[in-house]
TrEMBL record:
Species of the source: Parasphingorhabdus litoris
Species classification: Bacteria, Pseudomonadati, Pseudomonadota, Alphaproteobacteria, Sphingomonadales
Protein name: DUF4261 domain-containing protein
Domain of life of the source: Bacteria
Length: 251
């Protein structure tokens, strides 16, 4: 079953004659990506295979693409809100890979495929729907290229972070990978950027290794620092308390 709302949308310039079933890849990409236009009867849906993994590409006209998101509800990262509807190409994991969202290799291939398809079609931006993020394509390329080469998890591309009225920082979109979000509370004298760096590292660990299902404590990221993890009843949120003496700087 093809997902009606693919997690990733590649926003592309309006091209009246473009048809997904006629997508032509440059020679250097054709050796990496195999496009199967015969798997689905709908010409707006094709299969893409890369690195031994299969993905589903879907074409969305300008009016249809905007049904998947509202520009007013998106966080815009290194880009501006679109002034008018734009067409998009959606990318989803194939059905038999749907349970591997948390797998680092799968996620790297997913984002690499989006980057290569986007570059082929002169993409302007991407929308990562699980976190309601609208990201400029140049930044998307930079962040995902580093990730593909073994770099850090691209948090700004796939996980949103916000601060609530109690001063806690919370993730949004981490549940796509783990079924759980993180809510972090740190001492008041911790600089905001240091709190966010800790949240990013915790989110990366949960996205990769899975949710925290029991109350636990662990060493923090600096000497003398302790992290206390307390999942809620249905494990959809884990509260993390940073317990420490003097705040230490993280690189």
């Amino acid at each position: 079953m093809v997902q009606n709302e693919p997690p990733l949308l590649i926003m592309i310039p309006e091209t009246a004659e473009f048809r997904l079933s006629q997508l032509a890849l440059p020679k250097e990409l054709a050796t990496q990506i195999t496009l199967n236009v015969e798997k689905y009867s709908d010409l707006n849906i094709i299969e893409a295979v890369m690195g031994g993994m299969s993905f589903t590409l879907t074409q969305h006209l300008a009016q249809d693409a905007f049904r998947h998101f509202s520009a007013q509800k998106l966080d815009h990262i290194f880009c501006h809100a679109p002034e008018c509807p734009a067409p998009a190409i959606g990318i989803s994991l194939s059905d038999h890979m749907a349970g591997a969202k948390h797998d680092t290799t799968v996620n790297r291939n997913f984002l690499k495929l989006a980057r290569l398809i986007g570059q082929t079609l002169d993409a302007t931006s991407i929308v990562w729907q699980p976190a309601r993020l609208h990201v400029g394509f140049d930044y998307f390329v930079e962040a995902t290229s580093q990730y593909s080469e073994g770099g850090p998890f691209p948090v700004l591309v796939q996980i949103a972070i916000s601060e609530d009225s109690k001063g806690r920082f919370q993730t949004f979109g981490l549940s796509y990978f783990s079924g759980q979000e993180v809510r972090l509370n740190a001492p008041a004298d911790y600089p905001q950027n240091q709190v966010i760096k800790r949240l990013v590292r915790i989110a990366h660990d949960i996205a990769t290794n899975g949710k925290i299902d029991t109350p636990t404590e662990a060493e923090g990221f600096a000497s003398g620092e302790t992290l206390s993890f307390t999942p809620n009843a249905d494990q959809t949120i884990v509260d993390v308390m940073v317990v420490a003496g003097k705040p230490r700087q993280l690189e």
